[in-house]
Batch of 2 targets.
Target 1
Amino acid sequence: MKANLKQEFKNRYNKEATHTFFSPGRVNLIGEHIDYNGGLVMPCAITLGTYMLIAPNSDKVFRFKSVNFEEQLEIPLQSSYTKSGEEWFNYPLGVINYLIEGGKELGGLDMLYYGDIPIGSGLSSSASIEVVTAFAFNQLFNCGLTKLELVLISKRVENEFIGVSSGIMDQFAVAFGETDKALVLNCDTLDYEAVPTNLGDHLLAIINTNKLRKLAESKYNERVQECQTALKQLQQELDIANLCDLDSATFELHKHLVTDPTVLKRATHVVYENQRVKQAAKALSENKLEEFGQLMYASHDSLKNLYEVSGKELDCIAEYGKTDPNVIGARMTGAGFGGCGIAIVKKDSLETFITKFTLYYESKIGYAPSVYASLIGHGVSELKD
């Protein structure tokens, strides 16, 4: 892969790349729709991601090219930048904008990006691009920023430069991920713990439903509002800042304060999903993979029945998983309404799993999913020869 990309860089720019960087995508193993409720999430880096090859230039320009997209940009070094259109290069351009705004001295750069993350699948290709750009510039121009500062800049790009209201989990997992470890991240404090995740003779099957996620953003904002409503009603008797400040026992004693049945369902998911993350971390630390798998199924059922962000495509993944003895656990991952699901599958049964699951999915949905195998990978880094 790396050799091919180096040749591609040389073909595009007629010179050698001086550095190669890699930033992974991510999946969230458990803990869904609780990042904006001050809760715990359990993402991990995957072995799919974004490669960035670079070489300085003396022209004082930034050149953005991609193997995945035809659109390219050549723009001079200036004091600020604004988003233009919907092209992919707005993500790295936003990073550069905030580095310059922060007083960092940058120079001209020729860049080539390649990603093997399926675009629009909910595996955080945008966060991967942002973080690899921030990391590369920080190293190349000696900006002296910490990894957390790079994460915060990347999140700012997503929220302010691009205009997407998302939490910090994606950029955090992409930057801080560790091989064979899941991160238990407190989205309120940003404290985290890397939990050993020994998949043994299993791997992650990442399943793209190939459904367009048209409803995701409007429904996402609706769920955020419903959680805020529940929080305000519970605050009548409880001194809490977030729904995830509640344990299940306290919630059960006070849930009568939440008067709307739909809002109550949303709050119930949030409180119990946060508890499941704690149980999942304990199960993994004790090497109880089967128990972790059951928590994955419980998470999916809650997202389907209480939070109502699933759909027949994502439900298909969990339903099939329960029938296959080579699958330990399965669930939707991400915002829902399409996007991806994950399953923990025996390595030596992967091809059989893909064949049987694809037939099952096609019979229910009418078209095929895409299945990608991944291990739990490492966070952003420079790739050395």
Note: Residues 2-198+378-382 form a domain with the Ribosomal Protein S5; domain 2 fold (CATH 3.30.230.10).
Target 2
Amino acid sequence: MSLDLTRLRVTPAGSPAPLFAPLTLCVPAGEIVTVMGPSGIGKSTLLDAIGGHLAHGFVASGSVTLNGREVMALPAEARRIGILFQDALLFSHLSVGDNLAFGLAHSVRGRAARRAAVAEALAHAGMEGFADRDPATLSGGQRARAALMRALLAAPQALLLDEPFSKLDTALRDEVRSFVFAHVRARHSGVDGNP
């Protein structure tokens, strides 16, 4: 799915000045784009504005279009934009399997079908047999892979990454980054059945 931003900007409520200059960007389907810059310039806020997760006290203006459909006025859950944060956030009160199934609640009917989808996703992540595990027992890399699979199971039209590898050691960062990019590319190309 293509992602187009047209004069997107975020302004703190009551302030005349936006956090960053109006941004216009076209990301064709299947492309991976990196937003770089020093800490504090608004990179995370930009992703929040695209995903519809903007914190109270900020106002977004401009246009966010996914595959030709304007989504700026839609709430986050209706935009179908996945996001992975610096911390691989999993719900601590749910098992690993229930965390992954969370994204399937509206798209896959029936407990058996959801369980099968979760098992397949865990297998793709190299985490067979982890469905009943407590997220607190996972390593950093396992949490990152589980969070990615949960995001992909929700069938997002775009996937935003907010430094999800920054807290991993170098070897693990390379492993998880390769895992993410391989799954995103496979999903776009449709060459296999990955979630």
Note: Residues 170-189 form the longest helix (20 residues).
